[in-house]
Design brief:
This protein is of the alpha/beta class. The strands form 3 sheets. A 9-stranded mixed β-sheet has the order 5-4-1-6-11-8-12-10-9, with helices on both faces. The model has no long low-confidence stretch (mean pLDDT 94). It binds uridine 5'-triphosphate.
Length: 293
């Protein structure tokens, strides 16, 4: 059986929801407390046994490459100052190799994945999006890999969202359910409000078989004039089973402003170094606000 060794992290989007912050800085580099979002994603991939990662980057994304590179000057400086704990934090992991490819134009998530096709070759692979951080006892991607090992089929990570949110996601039309795993009739990208076939939304973690590239090769545009990964998955499901798996774990939506702020506050509260003080600050702010009212 083929092992899932490779992962794609698409990071070439424009990040318009965070403009102007993302005019010159990739949204994947926005920090949650003291760590860029993309580092949480890379850590999950490593903890799930991934050996090679390809990050799809675009214009203005050099900071991502620099972040995962060795910075000799900084390392020497930290050694001189005997800041060994920080040194550990800034050293790139030796457990994984990170590669880069450029998507020349942001034509959509499906196109970003297609850009990495030569790196993937003819083996099943993972895709992780930086818009979602998942905290789980067993890493989210590892849960999906275990499902792949059982089914030898593509597996898409899903979670329940409310009726008012389905129009923001790729949504599955479930057929049968076995434990947390679903067989699927179809996949719809951002259904209009009130038309979603279920509340099970695709949450940025995928295991895909290489046959997906047959459909991405067609470069068909869908919702929003973009080449959608969800549409290619829908087509893949017509020639081979694609399962959805409702993974265990708490998912943090860091792709929009409110979700990002919520995640930052929650992670700051949980942070050993600053958590207690953050709580005091929040209490102060809230009591000031209630006095204002
Ligand atoms: P999003 O639609 O959430 O990212 O795509 P975006 O386009 O950067 O953000 P907004 O909506 O303008 O604020 C999900 C993921 O797919 C990547 C993004 O970088 C993000 O990680 N993506 C999207 C690409 O790599 N290329 C694309 O053409 C589109």
């Amino acid at each position: 059986m083929q092992k899932i060794r490779k992962a794609i992290i698409p990071a070439a989007g424009l990040g318009t929801r965070f403009l102007p912050a993302t005019k010159a800085m990739p949204k994947e580099m926005l920090p949650i407390v003291d760590r860029p979002t993309i580092e949480y994603i890379v850590k999950e991939a490593i903890a799930s046994g991934i050996e090679d990662i390809i990050i799809v980057t675009g214009k203005g994304k050099r900071a991502i490459e620099d972040h995962f590179d060795i910075n000799f000057e900084l390392e020497e400086n930290l050694v001189r100052k005997e800041k060994f704990e920080l040194l550990e934090k800034i050293r790139p992991s030796s457990q994984v190799e990170i590669h880069y490819i450029r998507q020349k134009e942001p034509k959509g998530l499906g196109h970003a994945v297609w850009c990495a096709r030569k790196f993937i070759g003819n083996e099943p692979f993972a895709v992780l999006l930086g818009d979602d951080i998942v905290e789980a006892e067993k890493p989210c991607l590892k849960q999906l890999i275990e499902q792949y090992d059982e089914t030898r089929s593509s597996v898409i990570g899903v979670q329940n969202v409310s009726d008012t949110e389905t129009h923001r996601y790729g949504i599955i039309d479930p057929k049968t359910m076995e434990g947390n795993r679903y067989q699927v009739n179809g996949f719809v990208e951002k259904p209009k409000q009130g038309t979603a076939p279920s509340n099970l939304a695709i949450i940025g973690r995928y295991i895909l078989t290489p046959e997906i590239f047959q459909f991405l090769d067609k470069q068909e545009t869908g919702q929003g004039g973009e080449i959608q990964l969800t549409d290619a998955i829908h087509q893949l499901n017509e020639i081979q089973d694609v399962y959805a798996y409702a993974f265990d774990g708490k998912r943090y939506d860091v792709g929009d402003k409110l979700g990002f702020i919520r995640t930052t506050v929650e992670f700051a509260l949980k942070n050993e170094e600053i958590g207690a003080e953050v709580e005091t600050i929040l209490r102060e702010l809230l009591s000031e606000k209630s006095v204002d009212r």
